[in-house]
Amino acid sequence: MSQVFISYSRRDLSFVEGLAGDLKRAGLEVWFDLTGLEGGERWGERLQDAIRNSQYVIVVLSPDSVESQWVEREFLYASNQGKKIIPLLYRRCELPLSYLNLNYIDVQGENYRQNYSRIVRSLNLNAPTFVSHSPTPSQAQRPSSLEARPRGAGNTFLILLGALMVVGMVVCVAAVFLFTPVSSTLRGILPPVGPAASALTLTPAIAPAGPTIAAVPPSQTPVSGNLLGATPPSPTAGQPVINIPPSATAVAAGDIVEPGGVLMRLVAAGSFIMGSDSNTFPDQRPMHRVDLDVYYIDKYEVTNAQYKACVNAGACQPPTQLDSNTHSSYFGNPQFNDYPVIYVDWNMSKAYCEWRGARLPTEAEWEKAARGTDGRTAPWGEGGDCQKANYMGCVGDTTKVGSYDSGKSPYGVYDMVGNVWEWVADFYDANYYASLPPNVLNPLGPPSGTTHPLHGSSWHPYDHDTNVAFRGNRFPTESSSIFGFRCVRSAP
Questions:
Q1: Kind and range of the H or E run holding 3
Q2: Residues whose CB falls within 8 Å of the CB of residue 467, separated by 6 or more in sequence, listed in order
Q3: How far apart are CA 212 and CA 233, in angstroms?
């Protein structure tokens, strides 16, 4: 079995996780720091050992990785060890001089699927003709059902896929001789994921009426169970207005509980300070005042049980992977019902919120709910430690939502830092804050773009920044073990 070491920037983690899954299914043993480092190990020594014990080194090239000192050290050490280095151009960047004598493989967008066979051939294996899992920046559709399979099912699926293709060809030939059009025959070779595998634009599903939800004490954790859909909002100009459903029950000052037990917190109307004057991250600049109308936001990140209800209703696609960093069975496992759903992309998150009759928060709504109005940088104030949030590798995987009472925001919202990065509705533009007028009201983000912001850091060891102004951004089809979300509603 061949061993591959992957060198990369943490901002490209979602691609690396998908690439590693594909290579493992091709029969390769893959090492990268997310899965190869144990608590208490010395980073430098472990990385050196991993490179020495690898036959090949893949370097994922992007603007972030070419500026990373760790990636540069790994490249130089691999070169000195005489390893075969295979650069993959994931995001367009100016290549360092040391890479110019190496032939890179372009894996930007759909080029990944087209060039996947070149990657595997470079590793001296016969390449399969398909790609089973890797989020790519320009995919126009959700990946096929191959991507939602648990790890380890690759060989069996290949056999079944081959058999289905043979049967399909026989059916096609027979259809030709019977003068029957065959144009639609081949479309059924790959089975769909869920009831609507190819649909990206999903309309909210109205679930049947259920029992009345009783008031829930504010200290109680969210109730797991089926969600009841609300009437889809009608399109409006500007800020979408989505009223609280009549069946929602007030449980405490600032709390409502929706049908299905989803708790939401009130965020009062008014202004707050958004962004920061960071010199390290200019896309957070400048600090600026924003005015927002009143709204409700989920008290907790959307859980596995809540998202599964939408999948069961046929309105949501299953997560692209069903495991987590340390649990081979995660989504669909009752043990993790109250843990945040992961491996959901922006499209999937948006579809879930719309199914509930809600929506993803704007970037401004998310940040106000996280930091309040006094200019603090973390939900609890300043600084941070493992008693306040699941970040910086404190746990090494997700934790049950609402586990950090001392880390909640001024509005009583949990896990706004740590656990999982959270998708927001806006398009991303690094210069958007600088373009806003003073005291802007209900900003919706740029009118167009290719990526969407994520906020809040995660459980990952690299994610040590508790500043809620930090803006990640990813393509809408990217998913990861560190991506999740929550929803909001505009108050009437």
A1: strand 3-7
A2: 276, 278, 377, 378
A3: 22
